Design the sequence.
């Protein structure tokens, strides 16, 4: 009975958090527009790069497409911290704390909502990619794996914003976490394959965990079922989730204690 009640609590908070993240609807436009914008601009500007020796891929659009998927996940999951700050400043968070529910369900419900939204927005961007002439070489099974990995990484990334929200309870401080989007997105194999990189930049790319998630997406969209690359992507996403969600739970414990 206790387990059933716990699941009901998570379900309610998941639905509530999902509705919160979808309102107002116009606020969703940037998280879809920006990945599509970068995809259009970069695929047009760098199309001649495919002629470089050692560059794999038949078109730069196909090569860059996984970056657009990754950006959609970044944008969608980045709002989790802002939503949490709104709950804190409005007093709704305090109401949840005195409600007869398990406190951990507050975080779990929000994380599931973030994961679903990240997967859905990644799916919309994939549709845009297909309409622009891109492809998913692994077909429907590969698409499902992309959405699963995207949801997992979305939950992992949201932990950063939620941790800042719980520690600072300040909307401006929480919004500042958005700046992490740029190094974690572009200090990767976003523009060029690893074999064409060199020096400190190549080392930084190899140290960036997002590189391995991006390569897993690229395997599923254009390179095929590279099992090792895909599993590494999932393991890295899971590792990041342990760190960020663990940080969120620790910050949450300090807040409610």
Sequence:
């Amino acid at each position: 009975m206790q387990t059933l009640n716990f699941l009901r609590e998570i379900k309610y908070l998941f639905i509530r958090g999902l509705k919160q993240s979808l309102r107002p609807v116009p606020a969703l436009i940037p998280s879809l527009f920006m990945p599509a914008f970068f995809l259009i601009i970069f695929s047009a500007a760098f199309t001649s790069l495919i002629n470089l020796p050692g560059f794999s891929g038949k078109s730069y659009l196909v090569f860059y497409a996984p970056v657009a998927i990754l950006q959609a996940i970044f944008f969608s999951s980045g709002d989790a911290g802002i939503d949490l700050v709104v709950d804190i400043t409005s007093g709704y968070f305090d109401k949840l704390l005195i409600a007869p529910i398990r406190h951990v369900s507050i975080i779990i419900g929000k994380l599931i909502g973030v994961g679903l939204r990240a997967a859905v927005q990644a799916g919309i961007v994939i549709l845009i990619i297909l309409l622009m002439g891109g492809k998913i070489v692994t077909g429907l099974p590969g698409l499902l794996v992309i959405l699963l990995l995207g949801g997992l990484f979305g939950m992992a990334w949201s932990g950063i914003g939620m941790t800042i929200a719980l520690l600072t309870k300040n909307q401006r401080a929480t919004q500042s976490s958005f700046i992490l989007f740029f190094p974690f997105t572009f200090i990767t194999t976003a523009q060029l394959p690893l074999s064409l990189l060199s020096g400190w930049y190549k080392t930084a790319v190899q140290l960036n965990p997002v590189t391995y998630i991006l390569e897993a997406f690229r395997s599923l969209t254009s390179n095929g079922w590279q099992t090792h690359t895909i599993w590494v992507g999932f393991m890295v996403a899971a590792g990041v989730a342990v760190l960020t969600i663990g940080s969120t739970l620790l910050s949450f414990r300090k807040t409610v204690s």
About this structure: The chain has a mean pLDDT of 87.
